[in-house]
From TrEMBL, chain A:
Protein name: DUF3034 domain-containing protein
Lineage, top ranks: Bacteria, Pseudomonadati, Pseudomonadota, Gammaproteobacteria, Cellvibrionales
UniProtKB keywords: Signal
Source organism, top-level taxon: Bacteria
Signal peptide: 1-29
Listed Pfam families: DUF3034
Keyword Signal: yes
UniProtKB/TrEMBL annotation, chain B:
SUPFAM superfamilies documented for this protein: Globin-like
GO MF, one annotated term: oxygen binding
Name of the protein: Group 1 truncated hemoglobin
Position of the signal peptide: 1-23
Highest rank taxon of the organism: Bacteria
The keyword Cell membrane appears for this protein: no
Annotated keywords: Signal
């Protein structure tokens, strides 16, 4: 019994050991470092990497310089019109060179899929059958949730974002995420090709002190739909493409930054309907009409918009940052106008 | 494609070679350039003197770095030299910097990036102390930032 338990969680045990080792080295005071200037560690983006709100930057998370290790815990809350995103995780920066991150995201979909869930439930239950075909839409009649795990790594390749004010070479980092979306059934219903996938990015970041401005440009190589929350790829496969992302931040004070971001999104599921048991739900029109839901079928077409946000980040000290943003995420699956406030907390140790 | 990489490599090497554009005199070229009225924004030579004095006030109160500056000895002389240097950096060309070169002055001190950053934090505190705007303060940070290469030796 004890043996079985031990074999079941080798990863978490390894992680615990790693944390314990880290904690013991920190207690020795050799490795721990918080020598960066306030705010220069950036905040945590929703995938967990150091950066802005939706875009990873070339900066390494935490306040460690090349002399040590530092990291953070982060939590992001974004209540949108039809969805609520909770994202919680941890990240560690090593010698201002290398970064590891883990984030668990949970997207509660509110009433978005309730109708679909109700219809399939009425027709044969969430795991029932339609005309002899088993249905598993991954959609509950109420409050369907999409969970996703994101593991990230980033390496600073060259450049110095802060102090090289006498040249135009930015700090450049390359990184990758491995994303594991847990609601495979729902992704099938939404016609995404994959539930698990990786993405890679290259970021260039530079602060221009004479104009108090930070500029970051990122190219992300990905097939993600809504960062992976709606899976990867679509009916046309899951070939990756390069999508640009830009952050511009204005340094208002040494502890306050305002700015805006843009992230290009894909069109893998553009114009696709919701699919239930191999049937487009639009073809269920007669059934829906019988159920008095004729208006529903027409609204079940998916779209995806680029993401935008405007933000203000406040750094009261090196242990805490608070980011408030207004996120404009546009169409998410079958619901338009997903705009709303966004709050992100980062605690650094 | 090969041509492109070569062009990128050459551009990169050229800009790296050109990067220590400040000389013994302490003049720095930044991108974008420092405002032409930077010295005025600082309150002229007197404002610069005030800033350097409050910089040393914060440095000598910071246990992470005060011992380094005490090893230099003669804080008054350091304040004098730094005032000269900063006037140069901010564009007061009539001043001739009487200090040793940055690299020579800091070579033996083994200054870490963490210690350098502590001085930057003291610099921002000094700006606030003399009621300087954050924007003017960043002109000075831009002008002094490239000295990191010469000062941080560890």
């Amino acid at each position: 019994m004890e043996e079985a338990k031990r074999n079941k969680f080798p990863l978490s045990k390894g992680a615990a050991l790693f944390v314990a080792m880290l904690a013991s080295s920190i207690s020795h005071g050799d490795l721990f470092d918080s020598g960066k200037v306030l705010a220069t560690g950036g905040v945590s983006m929703i995938d967990g990497a150091g950066g802005g709100g939706i875009t990873p930057w070339a900066t390494i998370t935490g306040y460690a310089t090349k002399e040590g290790i530092n990291g953070d815990l982060h939590y992001t809350y974004a209540p949108l019109a039809n969805y609520t995103l909770h994202s919680v995780g941890a990240a560690v920066g090593f010698w201002d060179r290398f970064e590891l991150s883990y984030t668990s995201s949970s997207l509660t979909t509110g009433s978005t899929f309730d109708t679909v869930g109700l219809v399939t439930d009425t027709l044969g239950g969430a795991t029932g059958s339609l005309a002899g075909t088993p249905i598993n839409t991954g959609i509950e009649p109420f409050n369907t949730t999409i969970d996703m795990e994101v593991i990230g790594a980033k390496v600073r390749v060259f450049g110095e974002a802060i102090y090289d004010s006498d040249n135009l070479i930015p700090q450049v980092a390359i990184g990758a995420f491995y994303k594991n979306n847990k609601n495979e059934d729902l992704l099938k219903t939404l016609k995404a090709d994959k539930a698990k996938d990786w993405e890679a990015y290259i970021s260039a970041t530079k602060i221009f002190f004479p104009i108090n401005t930070l500029i970051n440009v990122t190219a992300r190589y990905t097939a993600a739909n809504q960062t992976g929350l709606v899976g990867f790829g679509g009916p046309g496969g899951s070939d990756k493409e390069i999508r640009p992302e830009v952050s511009i931040a204005y340094l208002l004070r040494k502890d306050t930054v305002i700015g805006m971001e843009w992230a290009k999104h894909g069109d893998n599921l553009e114009g696709e309907s919701v699919e239930v048991a191999g049937l487009d739900l639009t073809s269920l029109q007669p059934t829906l009409e019988t159920l008095g839901l004729s208006a529903v079928a027409g609204t079940l077409t998916q779209h995806e918009s680029d993401w935008y946000d405007i933000f203000v980040a406040f750094f009261p000290n090196k242990n805490l940052s608070i980011t408030m943003a207004y996120a404009m995420l546009g169409n998410i699956t079958i619901t338009p106008d997903q705009h709303g406030f966004y709050m992100s907390l980062q605690a650094s140790f | 494609m090969k041509q492109l990489f070569r062009t990128i490599a050459i551009t990169f090497m050229l800009s790296v070679a050109a990067s220590p554009s400040f000389s013994q005199t302490g003049k720095t070229e930044t991108y974008p350039p420092i405002d032409s009225d930077a010295l005025e924004q600082f309150g002229g030579p007197e404002g610069v003197r005030n800033w350097v004095e409050s910089l040393f006030y914060y440095i000598m109160l910071d246990n992470r770095i005060n011992h380094v500056f005490r090893e230099f000895g003669n804080i008054e002389r350091q304040i004098y030299l730094n005032t000269q240097l900063l006037q140069l950096v901010l564009g007061g060309n009539e001043v001739e910097y009487q200090g040793a070169s940055m690299a020579a002055a800091h070579a033996d001190l083994g200054i870490t990036l963490t210690q350098f950053n502590a001085v930057v934090e003291a610099a921002y505190n000094a700006c606030e102390r003399i009621q300087l705007t954050y924007e003017a303060c960043n002109l000075m940070i831009a002008g002094l930032a490239p000295y990191k290469h010469a000062i941080v030796t560890r």
